[in-house]
Amino acid sequence: MLFLLEHPHTYTLGKTADKENLVGDKKYLDENKISVYDIDRGGDITYHGPGQIVGYPIISLTNWKQDTHKYLRAIEEVIIKVCEEYSLQGSRVEKYTGVWIEDRKICAIGIKVSRWITLHGFAFNVNTDLKLFNGIIPCGITDKEVTSLNLELKKEIQLNDVKEKIIHHFMSAFGYSQIEIISKQKILKLINY
Predict the structure, then answer these.
(1) Mean pLDDT of the chain
(2) How far apart are CA 182 and CA 13, in angstroms?
(3) What's the start-to-end Cα distance of the chain, in Å?
(4) How many domains is the chain built from?
(5) Of these residues, 75, 130, 139, 166, which one is catalytic?
(6) Domain that holds residue 35
(7) Does 83 participate in catalysis according to the annotation?
(8) Does 179 score more than 80 pLDDT?
(9) How confident is the model over 134-157, as a mean pLDDT?
(10) Secondary structure (DSSP) of 23-90
């Protein structure tokens, strides 16, 4: 399964997050209506919000490759390929996980793998309000900036177009020949919400 969605304004702190990287005080959080959650993925702190595509792949690495590093590189490759479709040169930075446009991070990745089943995933900045990264030190990295497709291309990007490109490249990277698109209503029914 691959869930693609947008979150309300949220900061999430991974298992190894340094709480000092949450620099926005209570007033800042309240004014911007930002919730804060400690979660069990890897990585430090990041922002999720409207205009950002958050992807949660839930796949069996036993049926793909039992290698978390190859899995992370495959997720990066998916986003790099999507960036290429917008004539942007996405890349990796050796020291950090994620996807970059030059020295600006466009996609954060934080995962958990349990019994070779993947959890959590990626946050791809499309039309994201980048000012909301000011309340954190994104991913604990002090010497780099964040960016978005919107900022790089200087225009609003259709989220559904980006989602279609993500699905296409995800299927290619992981060798899937088809993928089922599930509506929000079906998801809520599945979890008996």
Answers:
(1) 93
(2) 28
(3) 19
(4) 1
(5) 139
(6) 2-190
(7) no
(8) no
(9) 96
(10) ---HHHHHHTT-EEEE-SSSSSEEEE-TTEEEEEE--BTTSS-S-HHHHHHHHHHHHHHHHHHTT--E
